Fold Cystatin domain-containing protein.
Amino acid sequence: MERQYDGDDEDEGEAVEDEEEDDYNQSSRSPVSSGGDDSNHDCFKNDDEREEWARYRKQVGESDGFELDFVPTLSLLGGFQPIFDFKQNSGVKESLKYALNDNNNNPRRPKLEDPEILSVTATLVSGHNYYITFKATNICTGQRDIYQTAVYYRWTGEPQSVFIFRPKKLDKSFSRTALMFTFLV
């Protein structure tokens, strides 16, 4: 039977049974449902807003909030926003450092070093949830791959918890690094 790491802090990196739809995307916890169609809702002023909402939902649903290539003009309380100045944002840097430390202290996960942030989105909820996509090098193999982490960063100015840490999902298939998280039982 094939088992894989699911990135959930509650089970401390224990292996979980492989589910066909759960390729590290934790789709059951996706912040924006990809099901249903609310494009006919009365809150839209015009077709442009309706199309923007559909584009927003599609991007958030497909990437679990990690990738958003535009700033929505709609008012989205608690919605995802891209962070373009992430290189100067100390909260983003501290959050990635915290997530890497958390990952590297778990003996079941590959040790990573030399991170390079590629993109960041965030939600604002009594602090920030930073969704960080980054490249890092596996210390054991020397291979450089793309990973994603989501970290809750408190208003007090410190990372509080890592709730997603995974190889970046690629078109519903595993990258070589994702296979390193797979265990044969």
